[in-house]
């Protein structure tokens, strides 16, 4: 008999084991049994052939309508054409030099056919499809050996291993399987009326009816949610048990001096979040908090206050940013906000002042040496940097707080690498300007406390967004360039965002491209900048900005734009986050359908940051009513980042939401969908919290299952996507 941990080779043999390992990473019986059906075909109910689309990899259940073999004229050989039907539509199957298959595929025979849908002479077809004949009803022995159940499971498959071959492997595994111990506490299982783990695995692959299959799927989906919540909550408990240096608020210090010189009032939301952070910092265990907020909601000021709180207690703060442009922007912003308070040890600096320094991968040797010395000596209370902060040469005197900006750009291992530079476990604040629905936050960031900023600072003006349908209304794009010129004439500035750095290969004319009459060309910074400078925007100062430029050039360009020496910035998405130029009022995003919903929301957040209204124009060649166009219409229809985040997540694969796929690992989430399964996730977290609080040691099987997940290296680094 086999267990879930038994090697696959003991059940399906060497050759099949190798294919399963190469395709899916499966090595155990448990891995294979967690390869779940996508759907079920009902014996006797044929597939809907009319619904098949060109390019689809399909498995269909159909009946042979005709089979004709003929010789080829142009070359040696013959072709067998088999027509199959579902009763209302037909599909052609072609086999070259395999006339013997005509004996298999007799008229009236039913079979499963698998292949890629192609089109030849206007007709849909499957070329050389794999197939499995359905045994006749009166052939009892064959029916039992082949497809015993009424419901035929359809699995994620490949040309090397069609669905029915996977089904045969799973039948072998189930036949050899001993009773599976159930780690889910009986009280939890009975609370929801779930089947046992053994029953669920059998019923999902070989259901008596669709109701039992659904109950099995619910049980296994709950298992994923429950084990993930146990993992996150146990991590959270471990973090709470770590000892950290408490950094309580101190009166008369640097933070008080900063607050007294702030030229604006914090919003109610900023004050609330600041109090939550101050409470965390005052504890003898490390803070682990996620700060999420709308674009422009004032997260940077909140984070800066937390840094100053730590500096008042003799510690240092490190801010990890995903790009050099953003890191340099943070440096300028913080130096501007602090003023003399950022000039510690310098002439004119306050007695309470500290220093702010920058460490990036491309800075020159002299600058890097100075920055490293300031960090190591403690003279720089705030050290801002990119991944370069993780380098071995970077050291701190007393790293007390780590702030990670745009958390989704970093893996947990990078966060931990920075933590290792602290003498004691540091406090951690991670920030994201991509609003996260509650269930996603609970699922992806379940080991962190969550703070949310929803309101915008006083005086911020609304941003109006419009879609420019370039193919239908080419004149609208010309009007966009005129609008930019008008804004510049009124003393404002603009961004033009392109998806590419380098020019494309289209043979369309420059004028066609500028007027939006090409559907093939994708806008690029290197092409668009000169075209506009010499044409529609020749009356204004235009400059490019992209990731292939040197750090010095990027920084000087951004500084010139901030100083109003440049009117229009033609840029890639390097300006997506953190860039704060209040004077910029217009943004045109070329080929906007090439960007995701959250990215578009982030990009348009670069305008309307001052006292003048913002305008964002989404130029696209997407067809009306297409999914891409509907996505752009959704962005134009609301500035509510939380609503847009739900739309974004609904259109993305689950792996993009929950992180990198962990094929073959027991922590891989195969069934759970964070939006669809919201209520289940909330129930699972509540149950997991009760277990953690009462002590998981009371449930030995559950504790062992959790330990196995914790030991999995992939589970240690669930990428916070």
Characteristics:
alpha/beta; OB fold (Dihydrolipoamide Acetyltransferase, E2P); Rossmann fold; seven-stranded parallel β-sheet; globular
Explain this structure to me?
The two termini are 40 Å apart. The strands form 4 sheets. Strands 11-12-10-13-14-9-15 form a 7-stranded parallel beta sheet, sandwiched between helices. Strands 16-21-20-17-19-18 form a 6-stranded parallel beta sheet, with helices on both faces. It has a 5-stranded mixed barrel with strand order 2-3-4-6-5. With 721 residues, the chain is an alpha/beta fold. The model is unreliable at 138-148, 505-520, 658-667 and 713-721 (pLDDT under 50). The chain contains 26 helices and 21 strands. Among the domains are: 44-148, OB fold (Dihydrolipoamide Acetyltransferase, E2P), CATH 2.40.50.140; 254-453, Rossmann fold (3-Layer(aba) Sandwich), CATH 3.40.50; 463-638, P-loop containing nucleotide triphosphate hydrolases (Rossmann fold, 3-Layer(aba) Sandwich), CATH 3.40.50. Belongs to the helicase family. RecG subfamily. One of its GO terms (molecular function) is DNA binding. It comes from freshwater metagenome.
- If helices are DSSP runs of H or I spanning 4 or more residues, what is the number of helices? 26
Total strand count, please? 21
Question: How does the helix and strand content classify structurally?
Answer: alpha/beta
Tell me which CATH architecture of the domain at 254-453 applies here.
3-Layer(aba) Sandwich
Quaternary organisation of the protein chains? single chain
Global Rg: 31 Å
Judging from the principal axes of the Cα atoms, what is the shape?
globular
Largest sheet: 7 strands, parallel
- Which superfamily, in CATH terms, is the homologous superfamily of the domain at 254-453? P-loop containing nucleotide triphosphate hydrolases
Mean pLDDT: 85
CATH class of the domain at 254-453 equals Alpha Beta
* Range of helix content: 25-40%
Largest beta sheet: strand ordering: 11-12-10-13-14-9-15
Note the beta-strand portion.
Answer: 15-25%
Compute the separation of the termini in Å.
Answer: 40 Å
- Looking at the structure, the CATH topology of the domain at 254-453 is Rossmann fold
Stretches with pLDDT under 50, minimum 5 residues: 138-148, 505-520, 658-667, 713-721
Domain Helicase ATP-binding: 280-453
Pfam family, one: RecG_wedge
Catalytic activity: Couples ATP hydrolysis with the unwinding of duplex DNA by translocating in the 3'-5' direction; ATP + H2O = ADP + phosphate + H(+)
Domain Helicase C-terminal: 476-650
């Amino acid at each position: 008999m086999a267990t879930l941990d038994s090697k696959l080779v003991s059940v399906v043999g060497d050759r099949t084991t190798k294919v399963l390992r190469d395709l899916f990473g499966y090595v155990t019986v448990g891995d294979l049994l967690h390869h779940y059906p996508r759907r079920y075909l009902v014996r006797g109910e044929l597939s809907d052939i009319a619904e098949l689309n060109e390019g689809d990899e399909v498995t269909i259940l159909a009946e042979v309508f005709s089979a004709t073999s003929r010789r080829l004229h142009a070359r040696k050989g013959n072709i067998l054409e088999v027509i199959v039907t579902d009763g209302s539509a037909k599909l052609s199957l072609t086999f070259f030099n395999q006339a013997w298959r005509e004996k298999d595929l007799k008229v009236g025979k039913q079979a499963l056919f698998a292949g890629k849908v192609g089109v030849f002479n206007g007709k849909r077809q499957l070329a050389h499809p794999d197939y499995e004949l359905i045994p006749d009803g009166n052939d009892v022995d064959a029916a039992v050996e082949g497809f015993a159940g009424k419901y035929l499971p359809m699995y994620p498959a490949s040309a090397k291993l069609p669905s029915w071959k996977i089904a045969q492997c799973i039948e072998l595994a189930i036949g050899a399987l001993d009773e599976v111990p159930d780690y889910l506490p009986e009280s939890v299982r009975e609370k929801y009326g779930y089947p046992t783990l053994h029953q669920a695995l059998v019923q999902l692959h070989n259901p008596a009816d669709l109701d039992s299959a659904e109950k099995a799927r619910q049980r296994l989906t709950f298992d994923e949610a429950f084990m993930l919540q146990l993992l996150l909550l146990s991590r959270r408990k471990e973090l709470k048990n770590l000892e950290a240096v408490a950094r309580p608020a101190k009166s008369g210090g640097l933070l008080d001096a900063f607050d007294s010189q702030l030229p604006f009032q914090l919003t109610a939301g900023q004050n609330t979040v600041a109090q939550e952070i101050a409470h965390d910092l005052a504890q003898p265990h490390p803070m682990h908090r996620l700060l999420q907020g709308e674009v422009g909601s004032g997260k940077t000021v909140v984070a800066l206050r937390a840094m100053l709180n730590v500096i008042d207690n003799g510690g240092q703060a490190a801010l990890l940013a995903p790009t050099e442009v953003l890191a340099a922007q943070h440096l300028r912003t913080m130096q501007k906000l602090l003023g003399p308070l950022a000039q510690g040890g310098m002439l004119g600096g306050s007695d309470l002042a500290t220093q702010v320094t920058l460490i990036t991968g491309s800075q020159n040797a002299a600058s890097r040496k100075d920055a490293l010395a300031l960090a190591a000596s403690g003279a720089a209370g705030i050290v801002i940097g990119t991944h370069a902060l993780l380098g071995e040469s970077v050291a701190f005197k007393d790293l007390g707080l780590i702030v990670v900006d745009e958390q989704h750009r970093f893996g947990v291992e990078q966060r931990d690498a920075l933590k290792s530079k602290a003498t004691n476990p540091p406090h951690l604040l991670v920030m994201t300007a991509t609003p996260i629905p509650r269930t996603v936050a609970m699922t992806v960031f379940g080991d962190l406390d969550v703070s949310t900023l929803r309101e915008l600072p006083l005086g911020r003006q609304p941003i109006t967004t419009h879609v420019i349908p370039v193919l239908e209304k080419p004149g609208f794009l010309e009007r966009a360039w005129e609008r930019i010129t008008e804004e510049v004439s009124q003393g404002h500035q603009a961004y033009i965002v392109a998806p590419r750095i380098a020019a494309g290969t289209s043979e369309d004319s420059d004028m066609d491209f500028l007027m939006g009459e090409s559907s093939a060309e994708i806008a690029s910074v290197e092409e668009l900048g000169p075209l506009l400078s010499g044409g529609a925007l020749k009356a204004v100062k235009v400059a490019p900005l992209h990731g292939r430029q040197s750090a010095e050039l990027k920084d000087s360009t951004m500084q010139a734009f901030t100083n109003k020496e440049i009117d229009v910035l033609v840029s890639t998405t390097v300006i997506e986050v953190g860039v704060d130029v209040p004077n910029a009022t217009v943004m045109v995003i070329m080929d906007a359908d090439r960007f995701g919903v959250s990215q578009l929301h982030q990009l348009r957040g670069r305008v309307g940051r001052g006292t003048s209204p913002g305008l964002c124009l989404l130029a696209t060649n997407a067809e009306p009513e297409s999914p891409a166009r509907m996505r752009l219409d959704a962005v134009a229809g609301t500035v509510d980042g939380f609503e847009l985040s739900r739309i974004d997540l609904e259109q993305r694969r689950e792996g993009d939401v929950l992180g990198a796929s962990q094929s073959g690992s027991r922590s891989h989430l195969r069934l759970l969908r964070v939006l669809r399964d919201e209520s289940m996730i909330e129930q699972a977290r509540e149950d997991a919290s009760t277990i953690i609080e009462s002590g998981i040691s009371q449930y030995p099987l559950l504790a062992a299952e959790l330990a196995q997940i914790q030991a999995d290296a992939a589970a240690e680094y669930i990428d916070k996507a």
